[in-house]
Amino acid sequence: MVDILTLITPRFLSIKNRMFSNSDTGRGGMLVTLALIGIGFWCGIFAVTYRLLDYLQSIEQLGDILAYKLLSMVLLTFFSLLIFSSILTSLSKMYLSRDLYLVNSMPVSSYKIFAARWIESTMDSSWMVIVYAIPVFVAYGVIYNAGPFFYCIIALTILFFSIIASGISSILVVLAVIVIPASRIRSIFIFFGLTLFVVLFLAFRLLKPERMVDPEVFVTTMVYLKAMKTPASPLLPSTWAFDCIKAALSGSFPGSLFHLSLLMTCSGTIIFLCLIIADALYFKGLSKSDTAQMRFIRQDYSDWTFMKKFSGPVRAFTIKEIKTFFRDQAQWTQIFLIGALVIIYIYNFSVLPLEKSPIKTVYLENILAFLNMGLAAFVLTAVTARFAYPAVSTERNAFWLVNASPIHKKKFLWIKFFIYFIPLLVLTEVLIVVTNLLLHVTTFMMVLSSVTILFVVPAVIAMGIGLGAAYPDFKAENPVQTVTSFGGFLFMVLCACYIGAVIALEAGPVYSIFMAGIRNRDLTLYEWLWAGGSFFMVFLLSTAATILPMRYGEKKLTEMLI
Amino acid sequence: MIELENLTRKYGDFKAVDDLNLTVEKGEIFGFVGPNGAGKTTTIKMLGGLIAPTHGAVKICGISMADQPEQAKNRIGFIPDRPYLYEKLTGMEFLKFIADLYGVAEDRFLKKAEDMLKMFSLSDWGNELVESYSHGMKQRLIMASALLHDPEVIIVDEPLVGLDPLGIKMVKELFKKLAAEGASVFMSTHTLTVAEDVCNRIGIINHGKIIATGTTEDLKIKAGVNEAAFEEVFLLLTR
After folding, report:
1. B191 interfacial to chain A (CB closer than 8 Å)
2. What is the pTM assigned to this prediction?
3. Which of A9, A122, A260, A353 has the fewest CB atoms below 10 angstroms from its CB?
4. What is the ipTM of this complex?
5. For residue B145, what is the nearest residue in chain A, using CA coordinates?
6. Cβ contacts (< 8 Å) between B8 and chain A: which residues?
7. Where are the domains of chain A?
8. 3.30.70.1110, 3.40.190.10, 3.40.50.720, 3.40.50.300: which CATH number matches B2-75+151-238?
9. What would the pLDDT profile of B63-90 be if each residue is shown by its tens digit?
10. Structure letter (DSSP) for residue A295
11. Are A391 and B38 in contact (CB under 8 A)?
């Protein structure tokens, strides 16, 4: 145990040294800002859950059933998130960390190294899920007037729940690294990505969430109630956690302790299994991972003739970025998931039961199309956060090449911008145009949303590239994770504000123009001015959102030299 | 070719490089030696335009690094001590990347790149991903890329780290050849024998200040030990 604690010590010392370092003067303020924002989110989650549960309590007989069904769904979702997060973190911590050579050269058993890494991985992968789960559970406690016993049970449930998720993930990782040839270790990401997708899909389907809001599909109310009461699989740890919390909420101490003991014994067993498996397989997997990547497609050098029209630096960075992107198999998982997201997004629009709505279909279709601009912009933000925001950080230690080369930072950033602008513009326009076609919107709405997105895409990407350059992390093990930093958070907040502002600016004039079209009347002078002013403001806002973050990123990146 | 004027770099209150004045002439190989933490790498980074000086100026072929960094960098072949590269490119693709950045003409690239790969014994590895290269191979690839655009100034930090004996011999001869052809080489190193073998002039830096410059003979005289080995001279001067 002493060895394991010693192996973990550098991590805690690094955190301590970073926190008390004098070199970064802005850190204190940044931490306070982050804490305040975190508390804000925390309060928001609590308020929404409380409000929802309060509303459910007002529904006689059905309220408790729905509240417990919601709790079951929340726990299953948390469990899936914990599993996925743990898989990625443990793979990175146990097999891809740069300090593994050093650690493995020490006279320590491999299972102890595994255990130390597993503890780190469990903490890293669970803390965020736990922090944001707490307000949900507190809201349940407040609504059901639970006593201190409930909160103790919650703390222990979360602890064992996280250990089980992390343990299962680690076992999967250790086994996968042995099964899949180590030369393709990063291909494991694809395997895990697809597994995640299947797991989430199955979890979602098992819950049949659509039935909750559509009692009409059931023959009688009794059948509906029965379906709501049907528990999830008794083999799932989330079901034990659910039973444990439910019993604690209803004051059944023995029931709660029984299910807690299930979680506890399961987590103990999993830790034991992890150590046995690690002792047998961890080192084998690790040594297998120490080989070169396998290339699926091997080509001799060839120049991209179509790029010859561009200037040298543009050609250099574009080719480098594209080749690097497609050769990193970790990126493929993300592309698969985005592809799935796009298909689900479009499919959802195709099955909207608009004809059942009491609102006239033509209004509803166009309102949805308008709101769809916002939705598509948020999808764009998520994709930008994943791909464009880390674009500067992905230069990693090779960023010295950019600094040493005869290229201005401004040009470097704009090249990065255009590399992501074209594919993301195509993606977002496809989302908008296809969904608009499915909604049979008016020509005005089609033109409006396509043109608006044409302004929104560069602004969102510029915020991603600019803030990614302003807050880079060239030393990150995984540059993609830089989006979870302060800069990434700032990017998300600014994008949300910008998209909200665009929608708010366009909402009024669009409604006037649309209604004028429906009523077959001309626009008044006031309406013309209002529409012109609003669209001009959107143009100005988008231009500012495109230029200013890029300048900010350039300034901060240049200041790094000073 | 290389001019350093009152070059100073501070980190907080600590002066890593303190008021450095130095000129390296055309065709000269200048060795820059000093103990760990003396300010060698900081100086090299300022020369290459990777960091800016707190005070003072760097001029490359008469071009100010502060005022015209792109033009100045275009004249430099920069070789860092640690070979961080784009791991997902092949050796040949990496050379093309550098060629495009430095404006090497299309028609010259292929021949030049093949020559470079051959010179650095990487011909068989040109179409392999950089991530499969050993440390020494990466170091050789960086050298090949730094010389691709025929730089007038070569700035190199610890050139022999990770190279095998054959590579060391080749690099030493290469630097001499490049200097004979008119290039200026500014070379930071811990390997005193290499500095002694290759460099026309050596500068010793300690605590951020140049404490002595000259040929090995000049330095021996300065240290007051005419017959001693250069290692002893170094130890005496940096004591």
Report:
1. no
2. 0.73
3. A353
4. 0.82
5. A401
6. none
7. 30-288, 312-559
8. 3.40.50.300
9. 999 899 889 999 999 998 888 888 888 9
10. P
11. no
